[in-house]
Design brief:
The chain has twelve helices and five strands. It has 300 residues and is an alpha/beta fold. Strands 2-3-1-4-5 form a five-stranded parallel β-sheet, sandwiched between helices. It is globular and about 75 Å long. The two termini are 39 Å apart.
Length: 300
């Protein structure tokens, strides 16, 4: 299959450029590109998922690169749906998903990258982080008391106001991602950009539908009260950690059908850049294969 396109929209249009003066609110969360309707997007997604299955098989066989997909978003933006619908055809042997929730006591006794470091994908595999180490420059910035709980040494008196503290963490993350890329792990970072109105609609859908009550947590509503702070915190994250080797993609998330299609095609394009192929077979193995074919064909 040839390189897919975002329905005539370039994937680069979703990349956050630190040199731009755009705020997160300047990104259109309701964008659907040139797709006329959900049906067209779903057809494109179907093709994209089929291609992803092929590319993942080659990635696994080639065994020189791995891919780390990071999904970040505010609640109800559709992270779980990405995992369910985009990666539906990927062989489970070559894919692993890790969801990062509140850190355990053991995790709090290590540096903030430790729990993510030990969950990195192997070569040949695709790893998906549902939330990630970016929570440690996001939630901890909104709730700095969590830094005290994590026993961070030399913590500033008012860490939420300390540019130096956060810039140091941002640089640690950039260095970490550069290390991964240098070692053959492609880092693809998605922020699912949902609007406040759409998040409200999805929350109401959850509380009004008994079958979706399990998806709702009282903390979701509490964190929604910090909407503006989260928007500012994410903007700071993108400004300091969107790099040429691991850029942030700000994906419109008000229409799930577009979000899933865009994410799938960006993943495919990143894999296509690797020019993956199945390993070449040695002459000795070819001879053994020919022999096996002859033996098997003679069996009754």
């Amino acid at each position: 299959m040839e390189n897919l396109k975002l329905n005539d929209m370039k994937a680069s249009e979703f990349i956050f450029n630190p040199d731009d003066n755009k705020k997160l609110k300047d990104y259109d969360s309701g964008c659907t590109g040139d797709f006329k309707n959900k049906k067209d997007a779903c057809e494109s997604l179907k093709e994209g998922v089929a291609l992803l299955a092929e590319l993942q098989e080659k990635l696994y066989a080639y065994d020189k690169y791995g891919m780390l997909i990071i999904l970040q978003a505010l609640d109800a933006a559709g992270k779980d749906g990405i995992i369910k619908h985009v990666l539906t055809a990927v062989n489970p042997q070559g894919c692993q998903v890790k969801s990062f929730k509140a850190p355990s006591a053991e995790e709090l006794d290590h540096d903030f990258l430790w729990r993510c470091f030990k969950a990195l994908p192997e070569r040949g595999n695709i790893g998906i982080f549902n939330r990630s180490y970016y929570e440690d420059v996001l939630v901890t910035r909104i709730h700095p008391q969590l830094l005290v709980k994590a026993k961070v040494p030399n913590l500033p008196k008012n860490p939420e106001k300390s540019d130096k503290f956060w810039k140091t963490r941002f640089q640690d993350i950039v260095n970490f991602e550069k290390y991964l890329v240098n070692n053959g792990i492609v880092v693809v970072k998605f922020f699912l950009n949902v609007s406040a109105d759409e998040q409200k609609r999805r929350f109401l859908e959850r509380v009004n539908n008994p079958e979706k009550h399990w998806k709702f947590s009282p903390s979701d509503l509490k964190e929604r009260g910090h909407w503006d702070k989260y928007q500012d915190a994410y903007h700071e994250i993108f400004k300091h950690t969107s790099t040429d080797f691991a850029p942030w993609y700000v994906i419109p998330a008000d229409h799930k059908w577009f979000t899933r299609t865009a994410v799938c095609e960006i993943i495919n394009n990143e894999l296509l850049k690797l020019k993956l192929h199945f390993p070449k077979v040695s002459e000795e193995l070819k001879a053994e294969i020919d022999n096996a074919r002859e033996v098997l064909s003679k069996e009754e």
